[in-house]
């Protein structure tokens, strides 16, 4: 089977399986039907099942099986997928029985450390520690950003879609097929999650997807498909929002692990854009970052630096405008035209 046909087969299988399993998770009475009840810090107003991530992970599993059967997968790729499925299983157990925050964090550290040990990505203890913390942060920030209809699924669609294109162009066919499968699985889930959402992704999907964003980014870097800045730029919309929000809350002395409604996307929803308007604007930013990252792969170092600088500047401008609008909103002033 050729590279293109293998990629297409993985994507089609992932979409079909993700759509079917997510549909089952939406049905009351299913053992995977866990309701997320709204509280003072939620953006939704009615109880909604939160196990859509099971459908996403099932779709990814289908894509992985197709990839292994048609073209094979190296140790690094298998380690990334294995780590994601371990995290998904632990988060599903947490939804059913409840696990302590310390145990969840320990599991993430062990999975990230195991991935780095198996792949040999780290270069020295300092680099290894930085990558370990980065992988754990990616899983958690993706979880933090999964709080509005269509947002986390959209980031997976655009982010891993960009990964698939770059990996295909770089000759990493197995990596391209898996990334295309992740994007397709997210698309199947989005059929039920775009506003008004019938189901949420939940921790069982968001944490593994964040881990995969970091792990597959490192797999592609190790394979020479892209430089290290590429995955950071592709997932910049989520990285920027979550990191800035965390730093602000830490500087204010808040308990950063507690639920809140101070992310940029949460403020956009609260200011009247709603879930749909927020998601569509976020999609524009996601698509722009993905396109800029892909364009930068074909350019020299100076132009790559210019693209990265422009994307950082764009995020700072967007953040400033949201902050200013939020202050006006809190003060009861009319919104700017």
TrEMBL record:
The keyword Transmembrane helix applies. The chain crosses the membrane at residues 47-69, 105-138, 150-168, 174-192, 204-222, 228-247, 278-295, 301-320. It is a multi-pass membrane protein. GO terms for molecular function: metal ion binding; phosphotransferase activity, for other substituted phosphate groups. The keyword Oxidoreductase does not apply. Mg(2+) binds at residues 143, 203. Its cofactor is Mg(2+). One of its GO terms (cellular component) is plasma membrane. InterPro entries: Glycosyl_transferase_4 (IPR000715). GO terms for biological process: cell wall macromolecule biosynthetic process; cell wall organization; lipopolysaccharide biosynthetic process. It is found in: Cell membrane. Keywords: Cell membrane, Magnesium, Membrane, Metal-binding, Transferase, Transmembrane, Transmembrane helix. This is Glycosyltransferase family 4 protein. It comes from Thauera aminoaromatica. The lineage of its organism: Bacteria, Pseudomonadati, Pseudomonadota, Betaproteobacteria, Rhodocyclales.
């Amino acid at each position: 089977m050729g590279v293109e046909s293998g990629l297409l087969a993985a994507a089609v299988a992932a979409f079909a399986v993700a759509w079917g399993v997510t549909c089952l998770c939406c049905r009351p009475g299913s053992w995977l039907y866990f309701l997320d009840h709204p509280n003072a810090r939620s953006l939704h107003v009615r109880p909604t099942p939160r196990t859509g991530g099971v459908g996403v992970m099932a779709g990814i599993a289908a894509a992985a099986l197709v990839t292994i059967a048609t073209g094979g997968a190296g140790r690094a790729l298998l380690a990334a997928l294995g780590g994601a499925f371990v995290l998904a299983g632990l988060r599903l157990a947490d939804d059913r029985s409840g696990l302590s925050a310390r145990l969840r964090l320990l599991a993430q550290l062990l999975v990230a450390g195991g991935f780095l040990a198996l792949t040999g990505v780290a270069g020295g203890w300092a680099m290894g520690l930085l990558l370990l913390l980065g992988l754990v942060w990616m899983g958690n920030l993706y979880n933090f950003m999964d709080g509005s209809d269509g947002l986390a699924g959209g980031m997976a669609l655009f982010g891993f879609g960009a990964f698939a294109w770059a990996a295909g162009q770089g000759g990493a066919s197995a990596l391209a097929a898996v990334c295309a499968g992740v994007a397709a699985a997210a698309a199947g889930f989005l059929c039920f999650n775009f506003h008004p959402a019938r189901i949420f992704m939940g921790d069982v999907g968001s944490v593994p997807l964040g881990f995969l964003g970091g792990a597959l980014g490192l797999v592609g870097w190790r394979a020479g498909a892209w430089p290290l800045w590429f995955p950071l730029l592709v997932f910049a919309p989520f990285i920027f929002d979550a990191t800035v929000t965390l730093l602000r809350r830490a500087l204010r002395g808040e308990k950063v692990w507690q639920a809140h409604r101070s992310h940029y996307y949460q403020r956009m929803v609260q200011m009247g854009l709603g879930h749909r308007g927020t998601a569509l604007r976020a999609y524009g930013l996601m698509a722009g970052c993905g396109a800029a990252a892909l364009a930068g792969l074909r350019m020299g170092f100076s132009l790559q630096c210019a693209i990265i600088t422009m994307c950082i500047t764009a995020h700072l401008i967007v953040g400033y405008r949201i902050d200013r609008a939020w202050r006006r909103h809190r003060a009861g002033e009319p919104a700017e035209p």
